[in-house]
Write a structure and sequence with these properties.
The complex is a heterodimer of chains A (357) and B (100). Chain A has 357 residues and is an alpha/beta fold. Chain A has 13 helices and eight strands. Chain A folds into two domains: 180 residues, Beta Polymerase, domain 2 (2-Layer Sandwich), CATH 3.30.460; 128 residues, no CATH class. Chain B has a single domain, classed as Transcription Regulator spoIIAA, CATH 3.30.750.24. The two termini of chain B are 22 Å apart. The chains are: A alpha/beta (357), B alpha/beta (100).
């Protein structure tokens, strides 16, 4: 329960105006939220949260009790509808702001970039506030834009600083500022790290595209880029042709740890692994599938047969084969049965005769 | 081919008995339709008494998996024989499903 609030007649009149306006404020909040969230989605901006609210009656009453005289009419109160966008990165706050500018009419006299208000030697609440209006008119509303870390700081600061009636001593207030400074630094570092990683990924993609595979270390990112080149397509199609099979697309990423366990270090190593094992992988697949009428294959089939053959050619035997299935399918005794089956099928194939000799 | 659907312990369970071959697939797919309503439930396909699976059967399983994944549900395959496990392995689908 909130504290009992006493309003003068002007405050009461404003409260009455608010109550009459409330249904249209609810509609406005929803409309503004829908418009902004769909624009962010269209622009490919993913944020941690978009939230909106219509100011609660007791919250407005508290505000009017403190500074009701400041407002001539209910239209002067700009945060009856509030919307907040919480982004991952600092530069995204500006992107959200740019989108908001295109969607809404901004009241520049009332809008504040609190990020720019600080003195050079102080830190604190960092947030961008726009006072907006729908282009079709209607009441104004507030849009706050901030990063996740700014939000955390601001929420905790609000919780602690404004909770009690006792003024916070200067030394503790300074601790808030120090924490804010630290979070600002972390925010900047996250943005910088993201930029560095984006550049790195761009470089990797370019090296993969140029075929300079030996210079690209095997990693989650590089393997994903490499898969864009469809390096297993040719073998998949060759295997699928055995039974005129449909190829069902699946992720090949679960095989990355298997390739790493083979000691493949660069994408060049992966490319050579494909070239060196493709014929034998086809032989093994043919020996298994030709005696069936299975006309559907996973797009991981080629890579799976390549891995199996690699192990067989390197004398990995039953344990090596089981390790592949353990890696891609979770450890299980049943994988030993599969390993035995693969080993038995492979024994008759020409490359196994060479391995054995 | 006999298909029984049960709801048990927060799971949707399909018990398959017999040969899931091309001839039986259409009827089996129809019988397994309730597995598509798996919101908030995991799906268990009990293959203990299943003797054979064809490509048509694999396609049914893949359809059930795709639908369940989109709803955040898991699909577990229970009690498959070594021969049927081999079919999953040789077609490359072994790592798509979770086996019990």
């Amino acid at each position: 329960m909130g504290k009992k609030v006493t309003l003068d007649s002007h405050g009461e009149a404003l409260m009455q105006q608010y109550r009459e306006l409330r249904p249209s404020l609810e509609l406005l909040a929803k409309e503004a939220y829908d418009l902004l969230s769909s624009a962010l989605r269209e622009q490919g901006i993913y944020v941690t949260a978009i939230e909106y609210r219509v100011k609660a009656e007791d919250s407005l009453a508290g505000k009017l009790e403190l500074k009701g005289a400041k407002y001539k009419s209910i239209d002067d109160i700009t945060d009856l509808v509030g919307m907040r966008v919480i982004t991952f990165y600092t530069d995204e706050v500006d992107k959200v702001a740019a989108i908001a500018k295109s969607l809404f009419d901004i009241d520049w006299k009332e809008s504040v970039d609190k990020r720019k208000l600080h003195q050079l030697d102080s830190f604190g609440y960092n947030s961008l506030h726009y006072i907006c209006r729908m282009k079709s008119g209607g009441p104004r509303f507030e849009l706050q834009m901030r990063t996740g870390l700014q939000h955390v700081w601001s929420t905790i600061e609000h919780d602690i600083r404004y909770k009690g009636d006792v003024k916070i001593p200067r030394e503790y207030a300074r601790q808030f500022s120090r924490l804010a400074g630290m979070l600002e630094l972390i925010d900047d570092e996250f943005s910088r790290l993201r930029m560095v990683l984006t550049d790195y990924r761009r470089q990797i993609r370019s090296l993969v595209k140029d075929g300079q595979l030996d210079e690209v270390p095997l990693s989650v990112d590089s393997f994903r880029s490499y898969l864009d080149l469809a390096p297993f397509d040719r073998l998949n199609k060759r295997i699928a042709a055995v039974n005129q099979a449909e190829i069902y697309p699946v992720s090949l990423m679960p095989f990355l740890p298997v390739l790493e366990s083979f000691g493949l270090v660069t994408l060049g190593d992966v490319q050579r692994f494909i070239e060196e094992n493709s014929d034998e992988a086809y032989q093994l697949a043919l020996s298994q599938l030709a005696v069936t009428d299975l006309d559907i294959l996973s797009s991981s089939a080629a890579l799976q047969y390549l891995c199996l053959v690699h192990v067989l050619k390197h004398d990995g035997g039953r344990e090596g084969l089981k390790a592949i299935f353990d890696t891609i399918n979770g450890e299980s005794n049943a994988n030993a049965v599969l390993a035995d089956m693969m080993l038995e099928q492979a024994q008759t194939l020409p490359f196994m005769q060479r391995v054995g000799s | 081919m006999k298909t029984t659907i049960q709801k048990q312990d927060g799971n949707l369970i399909a018990i398959l008995e017999g040969r899931l071959d091309t001839a039986a697939a259409q009827e089996a797919e129809k019988a397994m339709q309730p597995l598509y309503d798996c919101d908030g439930l995991d799906v268990v396909i009990d293959c203990t008494a299943m003797e054979y699976i064809s490509s048509s059967g694999l396609r049914i399983f893949l359809g059930i998996l795709k639908n369940a994944k989109a709803k955040g549900s898991h699909v577990y395959i229970k009690g498959i024989s070594d021969d049927i496990r081999a079919v999953f392995a040789m077609t490359g689908f072994i790592n798509l499903f979770e086996f019990k």
